[in-house]
């Protein structure tokens, strides 16, 4: 945030490209983008701010600490659900099975409405396992977004 000079009312900054125009407003005397940047710099700064959502390295490390175990646990639960599918007579309301059954049921039931079982085989746990693994790799892998942000030097 860049403070505007007090007492002055400035019109919004309009950025024009070949395809469209983008207006950056001034709200309550606060400039949302610095006025000393020319339009190409403004758009690149604005895009960079949108892409990394202005996470500082400490926030990225906190997100890694929370998301890492969460995504790993759900990937493991979906693997257990895939194995449980092979044994349809398991008592899923009993203790050891309810640990994997209860957290995954809402996700799998909503997905089954969109993707019904194919040829009698429920593929939704496999799809969710793939999605969770993909998110884990994109966000927390060796070249994941949050890992790269946490390694930035300010």
What are the defining features of this structure?
zinc; 154 residues; three-stranded antiparallel β-sheet; mainly alpha; transmembrane; 5 helices; 2 domains; Zinc-finger domain of monoamine-oxidase A repressor R1 isoform 1; two-stranded antiparallel ribbon
Polypeptide structure, described:
Helix 2 packs across helix 3 (95-114) and helix 2 (57-85) packs antiparallel against helix 4. It is built from five helices and five strands, in the order βββββααααα. Residues 1-8 and 26-33 have low confidence and may be disordered. It has two domains: 2-52, no CATH class; 57-150, no CATH class. The chain starts with a strand and ends with a helix. The chain has 154 residues and is mostly helical.
Count of extended strands = 5
Could you state the oligomeric state of the chains shown?
single chain
The low-confidence runs, each spanning 5 or more residues with pLDDT under 50, are: 1-8, 26-33
Helical proportion, percent range: 55-70%
Secondary structure class reads: mainly alpha
SSE pattern, N- to C-terminal: EEEEEHHHHH
Number of domains: 2
- What count of helical segments does DSSP give? 5
Radius of gyration: 24 Å
Termini separation (Å)?
Answer: 17 Å
Keywords: Membrane, Metal-binding, Transmembrane, Transmembrane helix, Zinc, Zinc-finger
GO molecular function, one term: zinc ion binding
Transmembrane segments: 62-83, 127-149
Protein name: Zinc-finger domain of monoamine-oxidase A repressor R1 isoform 1
């Amino acid at each position: 945030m860049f403070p505007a000079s007090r007492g002055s009312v400035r019109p919004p900054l309009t950025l024009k490209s070949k395809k469209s125009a983008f207006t950056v407003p001034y709200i309550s005397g606060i400039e949302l983008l610095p006025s000393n940047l020319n339009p190409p710099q403004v758009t690149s700064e604005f895009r960079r701010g949108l892409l990394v959502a202005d996470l500082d390295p400490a926030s990225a490390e906190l997100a890694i600490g929370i998301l890492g175990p969460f995504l790993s646990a759900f990937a493991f639960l979906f693997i257990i659900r895939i194995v449980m599918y092979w044994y349809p007579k398991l008592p899923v309301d009993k203790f050891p099975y309810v640990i994997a059954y209860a957290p995954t049921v809402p996700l799998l039931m909503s997905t089954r409405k969109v993707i019904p079982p194919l040829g009698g085989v429920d593929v939704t746990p496999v799809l969710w396992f793939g999605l969770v693994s993909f998110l884990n790799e994109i966000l927390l892998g060796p070249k994941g977004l949050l890992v790269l942000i946490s390694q930035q030097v300010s």
